[in-house]
């Protein structure tokens, strides 16, 4: 990468750089304090540990989504890819394939699905919104067709134990997410690849002229997104002991909401893994509290919409402050 591209890609050191994250932390703290007053049991450690078991598959999908959106792209097909991988895992299990091999097939299916998106985006130069909107329907349709819409269960104690396995008291899915998040954060903040992602998001044409291999990077990112969908499908099936074509339905909206709420600009060129983590926690805790206190799951869609609007207003507020400070 040229020095000019590095300068363009480097995050600005404005005094208001961390305002977005600070506001999200304040909102999260206010939510937990309010929950402590209204429903004290909600903030108990045992309760939170139980509720967090539901978030790790979604959280995994936010990591490659953050990288993709930083480049100015998007992947709407993650939920459908997750369903396809779950069905592949289920059919392999029915065919008598050993658990490790069946898991490998599910991951390979996710990688192939993501690579297909990446090829259309990078080689055919089709806008990622159109590509992934098409594959959103296609992957789900294939999953429905090959499984005939029936659930597949009975994976056995050895496989489902994956979701209950713990390391130093931390559930295995959480450990997997933490390791992936640390790796993504290091790549994004400390490597030339991370700088290239910001550069592509700021100006893709200038990045190409600067020698950045934009097409190769896009193919890599969408492939990683598909692989994450495969891993999320494996963890979901292990937790629920059921593989079905409706797995992950609507999850893409929640994933994108978490990333955007965390401060990643939908226009590209801005974002961080730490911000995404805050977005995950804020949306997860808000939705769980709504279900806990009012016991009405339909309110979650309203809450998700409000949080999305809030993320847009936060981004606009922080952008204005940064322009005033620069």
UniProtKB/TrEMBL annotation:
Pfam families in the cross-refs: BPD_transp_2
One term of GO molecular function: transmembrane transporter activity
CDD domains documented for this protein: TM_PBP1_transp_AraH_like
GO CC annotation terms, alphabetical: plasma membrane
Compartment(s): Cell membrane
TM segment ranges: 99-120, 167-189, 219-238, 259-284, 299-318
Keywords: Cell inner membrane, Cell membrane, Membrane, Transmembrane, Transmembrane helix, Transport
Protein topology in the membrane: Multi-pass membrane protein
Protein known as: Autoinducer 2 import system permease protein LsrD
Organism listed in the record: uncultured Armatimonadetes bacterium
Lineage: Bacteria, Bacillati, Armatimonadota, environmental samples
């Amino acid at each position: 990468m040229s020095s000019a591209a590095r300068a363009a890609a480097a995050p600005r050191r404005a005094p208001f750089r961390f305002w977005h994250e600070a506001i999200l932390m304040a909102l999260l703290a206010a939510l937990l304090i309010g929950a402590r007053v209204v429903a004290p049991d909600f903030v108990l450690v045992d309760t939170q540990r139980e509720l967090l078991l539901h978030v790790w598959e979604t959280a995994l999908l936010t990591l490659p989504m953050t990288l993709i959106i930083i480049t100015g792209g998007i992947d709407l097909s993650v939920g459908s890819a997750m369903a396809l991988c779950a069905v592949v895992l289920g059919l392999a299990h029915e065919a008598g394939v050993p658990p490790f091999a069946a898991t490998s097939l599910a991951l390979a299916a996710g990688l192939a699905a993501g690579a297909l998106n990446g090829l259309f985006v990078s080689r055919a130069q089709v806008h990622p919104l159109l590509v992934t909107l098409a594959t959103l329907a296609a992957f789900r349709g294939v999953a429905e067709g090959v499984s005939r819409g029936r659930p597949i269960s009975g994976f056995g104690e050895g496989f489902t134990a994956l979701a209950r396995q713990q390391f130093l008291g931390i559930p295995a899915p959480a450990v997997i997410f933490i390791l992936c998040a640390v790796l993504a954060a290091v790549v994004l903040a400390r490597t030339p690849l991370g700088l290239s992602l910001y550069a592509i998001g700021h100006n893709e044409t200038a990045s190409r002229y600067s020698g950045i291999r934009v097409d190769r990077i896009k193919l890599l990112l969408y492939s990683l997104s598909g692989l994450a969908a495969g891993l999320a499908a494996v963890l979901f099936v292990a937790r629920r002991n059921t593989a079905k074509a409706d797995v992950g339905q609507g999850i893409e909206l929640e994933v994108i909401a978490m990333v955007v709420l965390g401060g990643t600009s939908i226009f590209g060129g801005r974002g961080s893994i730490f911000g995404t983590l805050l977005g995950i926690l804020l949306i997860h805790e808000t939705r769980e509290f709504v279900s806990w206190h009012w016991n009405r799951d339909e309110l979650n869609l309203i809450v998700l919409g409000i949080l999305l609007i809030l993320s847009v207003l936060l981004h606009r507020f922080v952008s204005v402050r940064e322009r005033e400070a620069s």
